[in-house]
Each structure stands twice: as structure tokens, then as C-alpha cells.
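The records we work with from here on pair a chain with its fold. Here is one such record, which you should read through line by line:
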Amino acid sequence: MSVSRRSKRFAPSSVMEKLVPVFLVALLLILLAVFIIIGLSLMGVIASA
């Protein structure tokens, strides 16, 4: 098997290589918080408006 090469057409900057995983983790945490809030409201812990 050959070693996978990076695309010559798209070369991400070092800032983007660090920013994308942080952004994905933040998005995952937000999604998890939304599911927790929905779960609590369905159980009646949080009063609905």
C-alpha cells in the first residue's frame, strides 16, 4: 500500500488544522447540552413556557 499523500490543490493552514477539531468538539458539546435540556423538559424537571 502506498502512503496517502496530501492533496496539492487543498493545503490547509496550521490555524485551520487546530481550529476545526476545536470547533467540532464545541459543536458536539452544544448538541449534548440540547439533548440534556430536552430530556429534562420531557421529564418535567424544567417548567415549559
